[in-house]
Amino acid sequence: MLASKNWVTKRFDTQDEAWHREEREFVRANPHARPLAEICARAGIQYGRVDYGVHDGTLAIWEINTNPI
User: Fold this and answer.
1) Cα dihedral sign for 39, 50, 6, 16?
2) How many whole angstroms separate alpha carbon 33 and alpha carbon 7?
3) Over the stretch 12-31, which tens digit does the pLDDT of each residue have?
């Protein structure tokens, strides 16, 4: 999870402790693990990074990168 004041986000660029707490909780809870695993299984992808957002509770997938560096 990244937070930024810019619309293109490549790194966490805020020092706001509330965002850092939210990120830690997000990583701990991993709330989208099941639907993302299902999407990757349907796409035949076993390893990668999914770039996505959430709108009205629905995942919006932008990219599945199979060579995440």
Assistant:
1) positive
2) 24
3) 677 788 888 988 999 999 99
Q: pTM of the predicted model, to two decimals? A: 0.73
Q: Alpha helix locations (H) across the chain?
A: 17-29, 33-43
What domain range includes position 27? 17-65
Asked if 28 and 6 count as a contact pair (C-beta separation under 8 A), the reply is no
Question: How many Å apart are CA 10 and CA 28, to the nearest integer?
Answer: 21
Please tell me the total count of domains within the chain. Answer: 1
Instruction: State the Cα–Cα distance between residues 51 and 63, nearest whole angstrom.
Output: 5
**CA 3, CA 22: separation in Å to the nearest integer?**
10
